[in-house]
Amino acid sequence: MDPGKSPRVRIGRVLVHACENVAEAGRSLLKRGSRALSSFDRPLDERNNGGDGADFPNCDRPPADIWETARFFIVRLEMAGIKKHDVDVSVLGDVLHIRGERRVSDAGRCRSSHYMESSFGRFERSIPIATRVEADSAEVSWQGEIMTVIIPKKETLPPRTTSDR
After folding, report:
1. Are the beta carbons of 102 and 82 closer than 8 angstroms?
2. Rounded mean pLDDT, 125-144
């Protein structure tokens, strides 16, 4: 029997071929996935022609930390690269709405840019509030690039412990 035609060798070749296909698929996925880090789908000069921002792509939503205390519902968002005047915060019913826009920096407008992973454009977050709150008394504060929204609860309840159950 020819050693190149043995079942073990054939299985080995099939496995090597399968591994090569998996590796190629992984490279392809990595290549396509790296483009997902950015919201760019057209050259920079094409995106900025409108001037009004109507054709801006969506940017990544700012990450949020959400918790509550006995008296407050609190949301903290990382707003890197976003200016206070570019953000609108509202509480409608039992949902906190945060809308804003991360604008392209002057450095990002440079035509000699070769590669940019910074996202920009409009974003929107809608965060459900599990408790009844006093929407008119919501307070927004900024500390550096961190925005905090504090909304008083209508009914203050002491924090629950395991012994309360």
Report:
1. yes
2. 91
* Helix and strand totals (H; E) in the chain: 2, 7
Task: Report d(CA 68, CA 128) in Å as an integer.
Answer: 13
* 140: CB partners within 8 A, 6+ apart: 89, 147, 148, 149
Rounded-to-integer distance, Cα 14 and Cα 18, Å: 6
Instruction: Give me the residues paired with residue 100 across strands.
Output: 87, 123
**Statement: 46-164 belongs to CATH 2.60.40.790:** yes
Predicted model pTM: 0.57
Residues 122 and 104: their CA atoms lie apart, in Å, by 11
Cα–Cα nearest to 116, from 126, 102, 130, 128: 102
- For 24-81, the pLDDT digits (tens) are 777 666 665 554 544 444 444 444 444 444 444 456 778 899 999 989 999 999 998 8
DSSP-assigned beta bridge partners for residue 72: 152
Amino acid at 154: K
Distance, in Å, from the CA atom of 59 to the CA atom of 61, rounded to the nearest integer, reads 6
Of 77, 76, 82, 43, residue with least CA distance to 59: 82
